[in-house]
TrEMBL record:
UniProt xrefs under PANTHER family: ANKYRIN REPEAT AND PROTEIN KINASE DOMAIN-CONTAINING PROTEIN (PTHR24198), ANKYRIN REPEAT-CONTAINING PROTEIN-RELATED (PTHR24198:SF165)
The UniProt record lists the keyword Chaperone: no
Protein name as it appears in the record: Ankyrin repeat protein
Xref: PROSITE patterns: ANK_REP_REGION, ANK_REPEAT
The entry's keywords: ANK repeat, Repeat
Extent of the ANK repeats: 19-51, 51-83, 84-116, 117-148
A matching Pfam family: Ank_2
Gene3D superfamilies in the record: Ankyrin repeat-containing domain (1.25.40.20)
UniProt cross-references to InterPro entries, sorted A to Z: Ankyrin_rpt, Ankyrin_rpt-contain_sf
SUPFAM superfamilies documented for this protein: Ankyrin repeat
Gene source species: Emiliania huxleyi (Coccolithophore)
Length: 148
């Protein structure tokens, strides 16, 4: 990047992760705070979406609580308006990440947001067999009558 590379360049991470992503998304998912800080200083788009992924929801899905906090402090969008994107709450729920779910709810994550398929965080937590996350979401007021 010091030689003119772009911070948001896509690369193929197929060998390990099965899809193309940005270095920011890859680094957030892996919890590499120093690399994320550097990429943000170099102009990486914190809210860039690749397929359904953003740096925030990649970190949330993997349970990287400190990374989630850092990305939010840098302006990551907590409740994306694009229905093609997963919300960070949905990603954390799908991954069974209780501490991240709690953090996102405290920070004001919209609990009943549906993606383009109608899935909510509650539905994903139930589908992927994370009963403790289901209970957290229900206690926080998730609507269990919404259908996909």
């Amino acid at each position: 990047m010091n030689e003119g590379g772009k911070a948001d360049t896509l690369f193929n991470a197929e060998s390990q992760y099965g899809r193309t992503c940005t270095l920011l998304i890859f680094s957030a998912k892996a919890g590499h705070a120093q690399i994320v800080e550097l990429l943000l200083k170099r102009g990486a788009d914190i809210n860039l979406q690749v397929r359904v992924n953003t740096a925030l929801n990649a970190a949330a899905h993997c349970g990287r609580k400190r990374m989630v906090e850092m990305l939010l402090q840098h302006g990551a969008e907590l409740n994306p308006q694009d229905s093609a994107a997963w919300s960070a709450l949905a990603a954390a729920a799908k991954g069974g990440q209780e501490r991240v779910v709690d953090l996102l709810l405290r920070r004001g994550a919209e609990i009943d947001t549906q993606d383009r398929n109608g899935c909510t965080a509650l539905l994903l937590a139930a589908y992927f067999n994370h009963p403790s996350v289901v209970l957290r979401l229900l206690r926080a007021g998730a609507d269990m009558t919404l259908r996909d």
